Amino acid sequence: MRKVDAAADFTEALQSCQREAAASFGNDQVLIEKYILSPRHIEVQVFGDSHGNVVHLFERDCSLQRRHQKVIEEAPAPGMDEATREAVCAAAVRAARAVDYEGAGTIEFIADASEGLRADRIWFMEMNTRLQVEHPVTEEITGVDLVEWQLRVASGEVLPKKQDELSINGWAMEARLYAEDPAKGFLPSVGRLDWLAIEAGSARVETGVSQGDEVSPFYDPMIAKIVTRGDLREDAAEAMASKLGNINVWPVRTNAGFLYRAVTHPEFLAMQIDTGFIERHLPALLPPSVPSPAALHQGLAINRWQDGSYHDEIDLIGFRLNAQPRLTAMVSVDGQNVEATVGHLQDYEFRTDEPTGRALVNDRGQTYSVVPWRVEGGSHHSAHDGDILSPMPGKVIAVEVCAGQAVTKGQKLLTLEAMKMEHTLVAPFDGVVAELSAAPGAQVQVEALLARIEAKDD
Fold first, then answer.
1. Using one digit for the tens of pLDDT, what is the confidence trace for 397-428?
2. How many CB atoms lie within 10 A of CB 77?
3. Using CB atoms within 10 A of its CB, is residue 458 exposed (0-12), middle (13-18) or buried (19+)?
4. Could you report the per-residue pLDDT of 358-383, keeping only the tens digit for each?
5. What is the spatial distance between Cα 413 and Cα 399, in angstroms, rounded to a whole number?
6. How far is CA 205 from CA 179, 210, 435, in A?
7. Mind telling me the catalytic residues?
8. What is the pTM for the complete model shown?
9. Are 407 and 433 in contact (CB under 8 A)?
10. Which helix (H) or strand (E) holds 240?
């Protein structure tokens, strides 16, 4: 493939492409396609029966994609005027009629959105001859059960509705909740769903897993589809943000926090979207490594409530004689030490089912593991500071140290392999290997304790 920006460059690019094709395939024939700088993915839901009837159920916009995979879909398409809608949907119906299509299908188009959606700047891409993942948004705006229609058409019945009986009512969005870790390049995250809390409320949640189930590395990583609707686009987006922001999953990592940031991004809300949206804004869409101060404040309060009693004495480091105390404490957030404000017990509802004091803190869809630690004398390191935890499910392929061995900060301790990638774990400070529970060849789960380093005495 060659991208040509100027006519003067065309001949050289063509000849280069032909030489490469001939050498690789023994055939120097090439295709010329228009290069779209601001592409939108627009698709039209069609349905046909065995009696010659074909209708469309309007369009969907699936432009928010990562690595050419759809992430967030909505219907109708933002910025679609009635004239363009009529032209595109009519073209989809003609395509289905041309092949005497029966059942549910989707005609997909690429639109050049550099000057808005226009009928003369939308091109046919392909047809998917099935019901697609994003079909719920069409159901939500039309009031049609597309699965029921499939069964009726397969039984030889006439389509339940004619074209003039179908209309758009409101706006709908769908977000795909995946078992993947955005902080690690969206690598799949597998393991047991010890905690799975997706509060549906007014949203439509479609899932095939429950708390306690295993996420396997052998199948699609989708955990659920979250579907919201509203009278206006901003209503559907607000409802989606609310649902995504309250999803809690652990220890399997998900893209809920990433999705939350996508649907609340100013350009998304302003309908400034195309297939490059996620790539352009990726740094802003990735959740931070630690939760916000407010979320940590709540998390610490949760940790102070254990076994039905209030533990006020743990981890306070801000006491000052004859002065207002700084109610702060140190906590370990996914293995990273952070100073947080101590919460007041009465301010929060407490949820923890772990007697160890570990709390799961949600911050706009991202779930964090928070563990408090106690300040001990003049030590600069906590009891949890030297815990070497597995950052992912994987296989221990090398152990470089032994129990009792002195180590220096940054020294290689062991190596994990997961999803065909190696991850090296190192000593966080000078100390001694007080505990070593990892062995070469062992399969470990996320946050499994692999080793513990104790700091040298000052």
1. 999 999 999 999 889 999 988 655 677 888 98
2. 26
3. exposed
4. 678 889 999 888 766 543 333 444 44
5. 6
6. 16, 12, 44
7. 130
8. 0.75
9. yes
10. helix 233-244
